[in-house]
């Protein structure tokens, strides 16, 4: 790990001490949770180039399985683990038939998946509590340690995110990361090196789903309340926007995108519906003028300054 | 039972119109417009604004709405097609989704969250057919859809413009080389596609109420229909739309009213797995 | 010994028969070439022989296995590698990483091995890096290992495609117009590389436009015209074959060069 990264993580660990109010820390915690889901999306969309609008659906599966498990008396970590397994299974079920499809067909299939998950959460009332959701979910904890404050949650979530970043970096620097990018850049050439590109895409989607479920499960334990609307298509689009804003295919970009688009709506709350108009216009502007996101733009700026 | 058929076919006709607009834009520009449902919603509101607020007669309100929608279609073309050619598909998709978000929230700001209705343009006694009742508006919706299908099919196959459109979709650079004014052709496709969404909107508004969020679900159903009918096949879209309307009506009655929306998505995913070219789609060879 | 034997290959697109019953043999350890006027079916043939297209009819025996109808993946695993006429590099990866994808092929270790950096992961990475660097050195790109593949000039992109294919240690290497867009010096250097690869034990089948190059480097040629094989043999035989002369120069040996189909 490079020294400036270490400094970054250390600074991040001090954040709750710098942020005065509990509300600000809560927003920061939500940013970490979103960052987890976006990091996952980066595997399948950023690296492997497969459109995935099902990320919120996977997060929903993760949140509800964790919540139900914990409410049924399982230790939190075990419920979370179960959630990851279920989400991984769901990703295989979705990906095996659909990852052969080309771009916008896949987009529709994943949107359809997200809608189905949302409808099931909404209408399977005996299990999911319907539109009123599940309340009084046991908090994040392991053994005798239980997360009690927003600041404690920050440290736990930050540690999880650090681990998630580490894993993402290892995948990126391994044959798998290379294979994902190769599949996105030139699939036929990739398969003619002997690479099973369908399998590579499946692994990418599975990693995406597991990250999303981790995000959802921790959300359930942090907020201690889940409802279907938190995992609808709007959330899927938001996660996608975070990825594009930060810089598709960049781990740092995922973190930046998640931070910006989590904090911004809170900071601009006074705009009401105008915020959503601004958000839509902002996404269009990013796509048109900064298609490789904040990280790509910064890199280009740096190169220009370096040369000129 | 006959009543289910009537209401299913009516809603199905609306799905079909949404799908037709999608197909037209796709067949010329190779862009899947994920904001088609929001365009429909805008069409409904524009008709209401013209007719209810400003007291225009129905025909004038409708004409004005369709013209405005065509213009909006051109705006879409300028944002979501022209600057984005050759960009990764996920960026194009995200752009159209974002445009939909903008429209939905603008509608919320301008017209408020409460549902509003549009008076039906044709007044008359409902018909009784085989134990069911068909209102004038339901007849009007189905009739207009059929007319739109016929007109579009003729337009695409017989008119010079339709041929240009298909040529442009096949090979943009080649089309440009042989002197087709590509931008104009694509703009026209977007205008007509958006106009079709507006048409669906003003047909739907007297039947169900208009509200800012009405587009999301209708837009998605439009895709389902387009996929099932085979992307690029106009009659397929209409058959698919009517079929989906019927299936939903019956599923809501006999299976589960709550999961009626899930039925469409399950059908779509199943179709994508088994036959991604749709029921009536042609097989297209992939180039290496 | 023939490494590759294809019999009666047919491939149609719409109403056009791009391949109309083509036979082809490639002897192990040789450099073979497929030549023919534009539109004669050469690239289609390579696409069928690498599994990118599925033949409508005919058989393909490669390294003792019946390959007809199998996906590209299995051709690769059977020991085939290829380059593309319209270059298909992994543009977001570095030069070295492009070659490493070729070197690793389908032999990557499990996800667990990657995440935990198990021995399987480390040995596989070391092997891939070694083979990739060797391949880059063979084509003369060793000094550019860290450059982004998308930033290379055209001729070097072609060389990188070659390196990526070679890094997987294939038995048979298909090259689709490897010298296209190169000047004569670059093309001659490329042919030297191809010869050295053959001497190192890789059988080569190439499609090439530049007749001078092909005649110099090939041990055996197959000539296609309108999707049919009109001649096959050594360079000297081909040069004297009247059918070949007619196909290239048109009946009557007039001016005008290769007819476009």
Describe this structure in words.
The complex is a heterotrimer of chains A (308), B (288) and C (261). Chain A is mainly α. Chain A has one domain (3-240). Helix content of chain A is 77%, strand content 1%. Chain A contains 14 helices and two strands; from the N terminus they run ααααααββαααααααα. Chain A has helices at residues 3-18, 22-47, 55-71, 76-98, 103-123, 125-128, 150-173, 175-185, 187-191, 197-223, 233-246, 251-267, 273-289, 293-307; strands at residues 141-142, 145-146. Chain A has a two-stranded antiparallel ribbon with strand order 1-2. In chain A, a hairpin with a 2-residue loop joins β1 (141-142) and β2. The model of chain A has no long low-confidence stretch (mean pLDDT 93). Chain B is an all-alpha fold. Chain B has one domain. Chain B has eleven helices and two strands, in the order ααααββααααααα. Chain B has helices at residues 2-29, 36-53, 58-81, 89-111, 136-158, 160-170, 172-177, 182-204, 214-229, 234-254, 260-274; strands at residues 127-129, 132-134. A two-stranded antiparallel sheet of chain B has the order 1-2. The longest helix of chain B is centred in the first third of the chain and has 28 residues, at 2-29. Chain B is globular and about 60 Å long. The relative contact order of chain B is 0.21. Chain C is an alpha/beta fold. Chain C has two domains: 1-79 and 170-261, Rossmann fold; 92-168, no CATH class. In chain C, the strands form two sheets. Chain C has a six-stranded mixed sheet with strand order 6-7-8-3-9-10, with helices on both faces. In chain C, strands 2-1-4-5 form a four-stranded antiparallel sheet, with helices on one face. In chain C, α3 (95-104) packs across α5, α3 (95-104) packs parallel to α6 and α5 crosses α6 (154-167). The longest helix of chain C is centred in the middle third of the chain and has 21 residues, at 119-139. Chains in contact: A-B, A-C, B-C. The A-B interface holds A 45, 49, 51, 97-98, 101, 103-105, 107-109, 111-113, 115-116, 119-120, 122-123, 188, 233, 237, 240-241, 244, 248, 273-274, 276-277, 279-281, 283-284, 287-288, 291 and B 32, 79, 83-84, 87-91, 93-95, 97-102, 104-106, 108-109, 216, 220, 223-224, 227, 256, 258-259, 261-262, 265-266, 268-269, 272-273, 276, 288.
